């Protein structure tokens, strides 16, 4: 956390200049590059996603996938009504997802607002469960850049291991890609050692071409993860959108050698859905991404369904949901 | 971290009940044929599924007589609305028994359950629903005020989409008021025989649909029968030419849907990930046993390497194996004979200097299998660019300009299908206009719908199936 903010932002710009082969990083240069990416055919993309969704994952592979999915969850509470007590409950859930089976893997992280980072850190202690904080005036991102940076610094200072920022969708939709780039680079610069997830809010970008462009732009600007949504806008994490992002990180690694993570967030509530996403990860990006360092689910109620299915596979019978200890929020983000 | 292995997810065979032997379905009843019997096998395991009667000329004659009687006494006198009721009933029964048909088709043909379940059987039912709707509206089809059926129609269908091809043939024939003698392919008779059961279940009047199983000579007997008014055939161009010669000089009408060597044209502005999917669907769908397969990939030279690289990566994720496994993408080759033909043509491709690549996947010990294979560096003069392989083998050729793409696409005796991949609408329209192919897909491939006419140019045959145009093939004077 020692790197000076300004310098790191300059680094990102220098790297982008190099990558684009331009002497000065202008909006025109970014536009030419992003608009030169291959287009996405909506019908074909959705058909491919639907095809991946028909895979039938049974028995041992299902057991394996459920455990993997649990380990990939960013257990999330992002509500105005969040309290320290609620965050502690969530942390307890993350530490012991299923008190009846202590072999259950833990989720990757607990995801909270910046002012709850300290409480989450304290509750999680020195466990391997990370604390992720949303920042940059989540979810709208409508504030001045200094405010967004302060929001980020605050969360990092409180001990956040990961920062989930939102891009400026207004700037993106108006074609001001350089502004989006600069904001991401500046946020990245103040993240220090924290890994940066860049939320594109794909439900507001609407077209798959935009999702592809925003993915590449976010990676170019230094995001460690690209993330679909805040969970506050519908549609959130759809399979086709995630497919486009998986293609983007796969192609980015081909070009740069750098492996970026993907996080669909919002709307994934059932084990069946989670397994579909894992199938997509496996068949589109490849098995290198089947690891919680590179793939996450932003979810809350998903965990309990995974636990229910896990118990069912273990015992052979479904238990009532009331047997799943539930400290996580009832509304799913 | 271990790899994501998909555990076997087999569809249950319990839903089908295969008899040890089957007779012929003539005049609404099961009868023994006068010829010998042959065996139909599961190409994925070489297990014998059933003994099948080989209908001879006398059996065909009985079937034609039954069809003639049914035509003159019942079917031609029935109102279109009543014919439609039978067709709707058949369509509903196909839907109700869809799982049974899907499993049986996979067993007898070797194609993956994913395809029989999601494509073959739903489309077969859709063809009956669509044509059921036409039965009482033929006077409004733009084919004259009171178009008349031929009478008795002889139909010979291939093994690649057994039930679907049956429905493409029988549904329009019955809707327009004809009666039918149909011969399924010798390697895939079982779903046609199960369809006969559906006809009984639907109380279809006896003789309206007759199913005569057999091989080449049975087919020849149908083609040669003097009391058949029209022949509809789907199969190879070689057999199609023989049929055309056989009926030359007779009063018989004919529609032929024959071979193809479809060009799938990829321009440099194509949506690349979806294009790769379309290439895969174009040639590896149904093991490439598709007359309209996109078996020639014409890719703009500037992106050829990129497309090939992405295609190879995608092929590595194709799952080849047990057709009844719900995760199987590519199933078994339908017969030993077809496997030999694919093997031989692929060897010719190598010998002529094209670079061969396959995905190296493991293959089962028993049964007929061929790995998804791509040949790059193919030129127009190679046999694998000219001849229909009818298997999971793609030939990749390149072009420099749109004009060259079109010229190469059309440089074939066939003209059944083509695909165009580009982000430019105007280029789609220009290219489609230039292509001598009956079906042109834009930014997709191998999509079928009963409302859309299907058929070929040049040696890919004549006549159309599906849509309003398909009706014309079963109505006298409007073809």
TrEMBL record, chain A:
Protein's pathway: Carbohydrate degradation; 2-deoxy-D-ribose 1-phosphate degradation; D-glyceraldehyde 3-phosphate and acetaldehyde from 2-deoxy-alpha-D-ribose 1-phosphate: step 2/2
Protein name, as recorded: Deoxyribose-phosphate aldolase
Keywords: Lyase, Schiff base
Reactions it catalyzes: 2-deoxy-D-ribose 5-phosphate = D-glyceraldehyde 3-phosphate + acetaldehyde
Signal peptide stretch: none
Residue ranges of the TM segments: none
KW Lyase (keyword) present: yes
InterPro entries: Aldolase_TIM, DeoC, DeoC/FbaB/LacD_aldolase
Family stated for the protein in its record: Belongs to the DeoC/FbaB aldolase family. DeoC type 2 subfamily.
GO cellular component: cytoplasm
GO terms for MF: deoxyribose-phosphate aldolase activity
Enzyme Commission designation: 4.1.2.4
Origin species: Nostocoides australiense Ben110
Keyword Lyase appears in the UniProt entry: yes
PANTHER family noted in UniProt: DEOXYRIBOSE-PHOSPHATE ALDOLASE
Gene3D superfamilies: Aldolase class I
GO terms of biological process kind: carbohydrate catabolic process; deoxyribonucleotide catabolic process
UniProtKB/TrEMBL annotation, chain B:
One Pfam family linked to the record: Aldedh
Membrane spanning stretches: none
EC numbers: 1.2.1.3
Annotated Aldehyde dehydrogenase domain residues: 30-475
GO molecular function: aldehyde dehydrogenase (NAD+) activity
Group of enzyme by EC: oxidoreductase
UniProt-listed PANTHER family: ALDEHYDE DEHYDROGENASE-RELATED
Name of the protein this chain belongs to: Putative aldehyde dehydrogenase dhaS
Organism in which the protein naturally occurs: Nostocoides australiense Ben110
């Amino acid at each position: 956390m020692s790197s000076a903010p300004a310098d790191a932002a300059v680094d990102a710009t220098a790297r982008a200049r190099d990558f684009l082969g331009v002497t000065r990083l202008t909006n025109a240069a970014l536009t030419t590059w992003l608009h030169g990416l291959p287009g996405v055919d909506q019908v074909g993309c959705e058909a491919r996603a639907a095809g991946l969704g028909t895979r039938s994952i049974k028995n041992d592979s299902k057991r394996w996938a459920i455990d993997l999915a649990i380990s990939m969850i960013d257990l999330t509470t992002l509500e105005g009504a969040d309290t320290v007590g609620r965050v502690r409950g969530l942390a307890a859930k993350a530490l012991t997802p299923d008190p009846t089976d202590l072999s259950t893997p833990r989720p990757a992280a607990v995801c909270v607002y910046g002012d709850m980072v300290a409480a989450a850190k304290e509750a999680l202690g020195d466990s391997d469960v990370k604390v992720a904080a949303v920042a940059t005036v989540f979810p709208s991102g409508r504030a001045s850049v200094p405010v967004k940076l302060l929001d980020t610094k605050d969360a990092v200072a409180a001990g956040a291991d990961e920062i989930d920022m939102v891009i400026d969708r207004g700037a993106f939709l108006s074609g001001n890609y350089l502004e989006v780039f600069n904001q991401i680079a500046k946020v990245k610069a103040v993240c220090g050692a924290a890994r940066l997830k860049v939320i594109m809010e794909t439900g507001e970008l609407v077209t798959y071409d935009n999702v592809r462009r925003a993915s590449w732009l976010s990676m170019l600007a230094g995001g460690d993860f690209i993330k679909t949504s805040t969970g506050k806008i519908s549609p959130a994490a759809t399979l086709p959108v995630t497919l486009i992002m998986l293609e983007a990180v796969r192609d980015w690694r081909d070009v740069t050698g750098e492996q970026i993570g993907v996080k669909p967030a919002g709307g994934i509530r059932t084990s069946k859905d989670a397994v579909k996403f894992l199938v997509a990860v496996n068949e589109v990006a490849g098995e290198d991404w089947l690891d919680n360092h590179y793939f996450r689910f932003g979810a809350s109620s998903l965990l309990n369904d995974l636990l229910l299915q896990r118990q069912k596979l273990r015992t052979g019978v479904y238990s009532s949901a009331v047997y799943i200890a539930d400290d996580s929020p009832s509304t799913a983000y | 971290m271990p790899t994501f292995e998909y555990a076997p997810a087999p569809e249950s065979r319990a839903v089908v009940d295969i008899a040890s032997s089957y007779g012929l379905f003539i005049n609404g009843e099961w009868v023994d044929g006068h010829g010998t019997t042959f065996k139909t096998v599961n190409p994925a395991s070489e297990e014998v599924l059933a003994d099948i009667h080989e209908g001879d000329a006398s059996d065909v004659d009985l079937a034609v007589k039954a069809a003639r009687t049914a035509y003159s006494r019942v079917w031609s006198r029935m109102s279109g609305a009543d014919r439609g009721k039978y067709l709707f009933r058949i369509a509903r029964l196909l839907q109700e028994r869809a799982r049974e048909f899907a499993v049986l088709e996979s067993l007898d043909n070797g194609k993956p359950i994913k395809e029989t379940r999601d494509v073959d059987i739903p489309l077969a039912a859709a063809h009956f629903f669509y044509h059921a709707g036409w039965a009482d509206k033929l006077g409004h089809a733009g084919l004259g005020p009171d178009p008349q059926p031929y009478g008795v129609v002889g139909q010979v269908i291939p093994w690649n989409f057994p039930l679907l091809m049956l429905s493409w043939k029988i549904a329009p024939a019955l809707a327009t008021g004809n009666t039918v003698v149909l011969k399924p392919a010798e390697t895939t008779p079982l779903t046609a025989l199960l369809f006969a059961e559906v006809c009984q279940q639907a109380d279809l009047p006896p003789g309206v649909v007759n199913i005569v199983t057999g091989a080449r000579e049975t087919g020849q007997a149908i083609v040669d029968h003097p009391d058949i008014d029209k022949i509809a055939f789907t199969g190879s161009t070689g057999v199609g030419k023989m049929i055309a010669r056989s009926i030359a000089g007779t009063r018989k009408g004919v529609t032929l849907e024959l071979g193809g060597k479809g060009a799938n044209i990829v321009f440099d502005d194509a949506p690349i990930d979806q294009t790769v999917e379309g290439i895969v669907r174009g040639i590896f769908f149904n093991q490439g046993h598709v007359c309209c397969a996109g078996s020639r990939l014409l890719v703009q030279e500037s992106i050829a390497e990129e497309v090939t690289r992405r295609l190879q990566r995608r092929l590595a994720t194709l799952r080849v194996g047990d057709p009844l496994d719900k995760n199987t993408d590519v199933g078994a080759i339908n017969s030993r004979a077809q496997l030999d033909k694919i093997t031989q043509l692929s060897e010719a491709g190598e010998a002529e200097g094209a670079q061969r690549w396959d995905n190296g996947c493991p293959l089962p010990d028993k049964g007929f299998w061929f790995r998804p294979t791509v040949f790059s560096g193919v030129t127009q003069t190679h046999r694998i660019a000219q001849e229909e392989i009818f298997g999971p083998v793609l030939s990749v050729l390149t072009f420099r300009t749109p004009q060259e793409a079109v010229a190469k696409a059309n440089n074939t005796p066939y003209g059944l299908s083509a695909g165009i991949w580009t982000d430019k609408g105007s280029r789609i329209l220009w290219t489609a206009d230039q292509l001598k192919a009956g079906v042109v897909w834009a930014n997709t491939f191998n999509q079928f719908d009963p409302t859309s006419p299907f058929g070929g140019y040049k040696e890919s045959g004549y006549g159309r199936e599906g849509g309003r145009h398909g009706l014309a093939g079963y109505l006298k004077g409007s073809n």
